Amino acid sequence: MAKKEYGYLVKPMLVRNAPDRLYDEPRVWMEAKDLEGFNAHFSFGFVKKPTVFHPVEGAVVHPYDEILVFGGFANGDILHLGGEISVELGEEHEKHVFDKPSLVLIPRGTPHGPVTVSRVDTPFVHYSIGLAPEYKATSLPKGAPSSGAKHAHLIKPLKTVLETRAVGSGMGYERVTDENGIMRPSERGIGPGNGDQIVWLFGKNLEGMDVNFTWGLYSKCGKWHRGGEAHTHPEAEILCFVGLDPNDINYLGAELELGLGKDYERHVYNKPTVVVCPQGFPHLPLVTRWVDKPYGFFVICLSGEHDSPWVEA
User: Fold this and answer.
1) Domain that includes residue 57, residue range
2) What mean pLDDT is predicted for residues 151-156?
3) Prediction pTM value
4) Residue 227 Rama label (left phi>0; alpha psi -120 to 50; beta)
């Protein structure tokens, strides 16, 4: 079989041990060196039992912005977290508790941790986004938790926040949510393979961080987008396809086909995969070929906004 020109952009998810004292079991962990120089790093895994992580002991501080995401998926319900979590923020070790899908914003230089999961009714997803090519942290000693609300604005609900019904030029549909901030593109005629439930966060919702990202649940076959064949973005992004089996992080449960480059070079994969889309790089069409079990998908795009113009034929 002839080697494909853009095959280097399609990567298997790398499951490994996280840097020392962050997590107590292996998870997806990928940095710029694994992602063709993509200027960020990310991790992904499941929380299945009460535990302590990020870090296991003490606290850490990073020289870059970071986002900790806690997402629901059990029984096909993106709104159900299935656990209770606390996180300590700031030099005060201010303790914040939540039991709904949420994200925790960590501006650069902010001491944080540990994250304590006190209850797990059903497993949930946890992934992190670090806005730097590689993980760096300074460890801090354990402190006594305190109460307060100084850092409360850094805990956000995991839902789409839209000021208007803005049309995404390359998405081919209105970004419209229901009353819970959930987008349901597969039900709106966008494309049968698109998400059953999606949340999408932008820089204006993230205390001005220069990133936008999604979390979504997918279960249907078919093409994802109505409109042109391929689109681009002014900034680099990665497309992350993950399974939803908490006991097998290497299982996807679906097969997808993605076109890359202006000639729509075809790539097919059926294991957890990340696709790197450099700045201005044409990609799509994206088609879900078959689904054995619902799977998850998230985008990480290195801009506070998201533009995706169609490539002119």
Assistant:
1) 7-157
2) 98
3) 0.95
4) left
